[in-house]
Amino acid sequence: MLKLLLALPLVTGSLCLLCLFVKKGRVAEFLNLLNVGLCFVISILLLSDITRSGPRYDFNGFIYVDTLGGFFLCLTLMVSLAVSIYSISYMRQAVEKAEIDKHLCHYYLLLNLFVFTMMIVTTTGNLGVIWISIEGTTLVSAFLVGFYNEKNSLEAAWKYLIICTVGITFALFGTVLFYYASLHIPFELRNTLNWFEMTRFADRLDPRLTKLAFVFILLGYGTKAGLAPMHTWLPDAHSQAPTPMSALLSGVLLKCSFYGILRFYIIASKCLGTAYLNNLLLTFGIISLVIATFFILTQKDIKRLLAYSSLENMGIIAAGVGFGGLLGIYGALFHILNHALVKSFMFFVSGNLSVKYHTKSMKDIRGAIGIMPITGTGLLLGSFALAGVPPFNMFMSEIAILSAGFSSGKVLVSCIFLVSLVIVFAGILRHTTAMAFNPPPQGVERGEAGTWAILACLLLLGPIILLGVCIPDFLDNVLNQSVSIIIGEKVSWTKESLTLMK
Known about the structure:
The chain is mostly helical. It has 20 helices and two strands. It has a two-stranded antiparallel ribbon. A hairpin with a 4-residue loop joins strand 1 (56-58) and strand 2. Helix 8 (207-225) runs antiparallel to helix 10 (243-272), helix 11 packs parallel to helix 17 (411-437) and helix 15 (373-386) runs antiparallel to helix 17 (411-437). The longest helix has 33 residues, at 325-357.
């Protein structure tokens, strides 16, 4: 299953390349949707098998998938499936309105390559290959950020490419330092950059080099994950990319980069303990959260608002791991899933609104409830979920992380965390209620977006509501096993604890 899973995007990308020459955009749409749908089903079956029977590996650990990697893999493909469905309506309209001067097949070729590079991040056991694949996501997605070939989009693409390349260079240096920290260990006990092997002798790494290495890893992959103060590429790239790509960047790409941090966190914690690492993550997390709070209040562009919300939520995730403990890490992983669902949903809604109103300016988007009843309702529901209002899913993970903060004794930091969440709550609802209920502008025709766009929104809205009410047993098992991998011991903390807190 694993080999088939990795082969499908490459085969589909090749077929999309052929469609590019014969100009069969509708065929490329079908092939892409079929590919991502099959990959998602296979990933679920693979994850289910892994939770029962243990990790899967091949080629001497070059390919390695445990529960943690399988969780991120399924998340990647779930959002990619929703994006593929949404792209059908959105990109057809873009072609019809001549917003792009490239063929539709080009878009689907790049989309498959982008998904493939993110899949490699989550399915390799080699730390060097993780770096290569994350850099690969930068190179492919830069073309998608600048896809409209306009001044602003090309500027955003170059900014994204330069900043993330500088960041990923730090991550490369950190990876080399991790390897250098192991050179005093007898050769027969180590296997170069194999993650599983390195965790076995992690307690024998040079502590001073390991500390320095993790700082570079956090700076490098943190740049790609959108953590402050290395986040400056994020609002430009998210706002200028085609809306389906904005959803993929925010919903999945940021998480794949954070996955890289987690893999090194596991190794470093066995050498250094967790206090030093948690303080670093908590510092970057709270800084990201506070900076995002101020920008959210002052935004005028709906996609930039969502971009700064991504900065806020990546700060929440980093803070969750930084607070530590079973509850903090469980909450952080759960928030990764919740944010991916909600943010992708909100980008789809924003795309529908931007197409209808011909603008991304929030002051010009008014009366959405009356003009687009389904999309307008989705705007309100999504904003409630994004602001952490119960009973939506993000409330569950945020309350878990906040509880972990107070229980860890970090009262001041937890209070800053809570105040920032309250301010963000007020800011997001102020923006979205104005767009939903204020009198609509003249000349805007009543009507919804395309059928495929509405279907993609509904596909995500279901789990957003469901996960705010209960956590399925399968997901709870996956999260518990992932927490066990991160902390290095078996845990039995379950969803009942989170339900009681709720």
